[in-house]
Amino acid sequence: MRLWLKDPLAVLADEAARGVVVEGSRIVECVGAGREPMAPVDAVFDATRHVLIPGLVNTHHHVYQTLTRAHPGAINKELFPWLRALYPIWTKGLNPEAFRLAVRLAGTELLMSGCTTAADHHYIFPAGLEDAIDIEVDEARALGLRMTVSRGSMNLSEKDGGLPPDTAVQDEDTILADCERVIGAYHDPSPGAMIRIALAPCSPFSVTRSLMTQTAALAARHDCRLHTHLGETEDENAFCLAKFECRPVDYLEEVGWMSDRTWLAHGIHFDDAEVARLGRHGVGVCHCPTSNAVLASGLCRTRELEAAGVPVGLGVDGSASNDNSNLMEGVRHALMLGRLRYDATLSHLDVLRWATQGSARCLGRDDIGRIAPGLQADLALFTLDELRFSGAGDPLAALVLCGAHRADRVMVAGTWKVIDGLPVDVDVARLRREHGAAAKKFLAP
């Protein structure tokens, strides 16, 4: 079936003023001004009320954290004390039922915000939750959300000089064996893949040097990507200097991670030489503006990173340090914080590029992130009907400057997943009720 998304109010693509034609899972034509589709279409969607953009790509999340939003034990803290407050709560409370609801809720939120691809970084596997990656894949498939599921890990606990409690870590052999298992079960490197696996030791302060090295070798052997937190806080820099006698970027190189297979979360506290090194090796950086602001971590050097050749993407980060899973809101926050760091020439097109093309590059994908023939039909359509948009002259700029936060229509792989602002085949009221009940248990003393 050939579907023409006809005459959008505005479109974030070249030569597509009259919209796009979708056939199967792919975009097959961009229809320029004054033209008709080159071949007959089977159906037409009237997009005259809609601003059409590529589906947003979220390159860093911790979906389990939806269960501990605005947790009274962790609010108003910076990263290390925030983690120390929450690690015992997560380790004690996470179980398969609660985790499944967390994945479902976060994925639904992301879709409703216009996000069509997400990368989740799950690194905590308390007893009973050994199959967390399987649950994530199952829920992503049910929602129709394209996903890079990152098999995270922690094996450096407090007794060994790390940050997480002993109950929150696994041993290296267990971690590597499960990484092999989930790659074999789920990793699809082919174009248009709905599920891919990445390997993601959590951070320098929660994993050993050996695990970092072994994980890099495993990823190279199976052609999958590498992900970790790096350069998020000055505390992390101090930890690396004390524990490893080097800065985080030096450590990254020593353990074999300095390659275009790697993308990093946050990437705030890099000096000029480190920015240049990351760029030379093609290492990506996921900018997490909302989380960085909540935890007072600092301002990412997005312009310098991009200029050095670093792919820059966007992420919502964990829902306990962002407190929602809305990437469209994150786009606006990226603009506002970026202008505080730089100037008003940082534009809405810059931040939309990070959330689409840049994020796709971080995930190693050239089949999503843009509206062009041959690419996957992952699209987000926003209306400007709310009061917040009244008077807006530039529809694309209005999405960012006026604060769009909910898509009217979302398509993934050529199939509508959000219609009239609501997810297809998801009972939102029931999900809210069940997830809320599960989250209350994390407040118990």
Automatic annotation (TrEMBL):
Keywords: Hydrolase, Metal-binding, Zinc
GO MF entry, a single one: metal ion binding
Pfam families per record: Amidohydro_1
UniProt EC number: 3.5.4.32
Coiled coil: none
Zinc keyword on record: yes
Domain of life of the source: Bacteria
Top EC class for this record: hydrolase
Keyword rRNA-binding appears in the UniProt entry: no
Chain ranges of the Amidohydrolase-related domain: 51-415
Signal sequence, renumbered to the chain: none
Similarity comment: family membership: Belongs to the metallo-dependent hydrolases superfamily. ATZ/TRZ family.
Name recorded for this polypeptide: 8-oxoguanine deaminase
Species for this entry: Siculibacillus lacustris
